[in-house]
Amino acid sequence: MKIRWNIVLSVITLALLAWFYSLHQADENLNDLIKSDDGPEYIGQNMQTTVYSPSGKKQYLALSDKVEHYASDKHTDFHRPVVYLYDIQTGQLGGQSWKISADKAKLSQENMLYLNGNVIVQSLLADSRLQRVETQRAVVNLKTQDITSDTMVTINGLNFNSTGLKLSGNLQQQIATLKEQVKTHYEINKQ
């Protein structure tokens, strides 16, 4: 009789040890669900975000294939972003004045948009003096619509094309200044 109880207790003990061991095994699938300290707070696909000013006027609309928000330094990464800036003077619905696109972008807590790769800033207004800006890297302040770049820039405007380095300007005021290696071609219309 003692042998039977020893066998039964041994089987129960082995079963409990196996169960305890299985509970403490690292599940690789579960580790993917745990957020790392330097990982994004959330990730979204095909996102659309509209941002309003404190007075209730639309400031910009951002579309992106993929969005990653990092809570540690409160920045957001965008993959293949398209940003529509609104006229900050009127902020009317349908008052989009600029379309900005790039391969990647980083939006800081201070509303600074850092664009990288195939950056295109295009006016949506037919009568804009400044029609299109192309570069590889640019920074846009989404509140003031100031723009800067330290790479080669091509600017197309009404009746002119310019290339150069170190762009600074303001999209709302349709002003762009190239500071180095500037080449400009004017088209004179004879009427």
Q: How would you describe this structure to a colleague?
A:
A hairpin with a 5-residue loop joins strand 1 and strand 2. The chain is elongated and about 115 Å long. The protein starts with a helix and ends in a 5-residue tail after the last strand. The chain has one domain: lipopolysaccharide transport protein A fold (Sandwich), CATH 2.60.450. It contains 2 helices and 12 strands; from the N terminus they run H-H-E-E-E-E-E-E-E-E-E-E-E-E. Strands 1, 2, 3, 4, 5, 6, 7, 8, 9, 10, 11 and 12 form a 12-stranded antiparallel beta sheet that branches. The chain is mostly beta strands and 191 residues long.
Structural topology:
Layout lengths: L1 H22 L4 H6 L8 E11 L5 E13 L4 E5 L2 E5 L9 E6 L2 E4 L4 E12 L6 E12 L4 E4 L3 E5 L2 E11 L4 E12 L5
Antiparallel strand pairs: 1-2, 2-3, 2-4, 3-6, 4-5, 5-7, 6-7, 7-8, 8-9, 8-10, 9-11, 10-11, 11-12
Care to give the gist of this entry?
The chain is mainly beta and 191 residues long. Helix content is 15%, strand content 52%. The protein has a single domain (41-186), classed as Lipopolysaccharide (LPS) transport protein A like domain (lipopolysaccharide transport protein A fold, Sandwich).
Number of strand segments: 12
So what's the CATH class?
Mainly Beta
- H and E order: HHEEEEEEEEEEEE
CATH superfamily: Lipopolysaccharide (LPS) transport protein A like domain
Strand content: over 45%
Largest sheet: 12 strands, antiparallel
Low confidence ranges: none
- The CATH topology is lipopolysaccharide transport protein A fold
- Average pLDDT reading: 83
First-to-last CA distance: 117 Å
Q: Quickly give the structural class.
A: mainly beta
Helix content: 10-25%
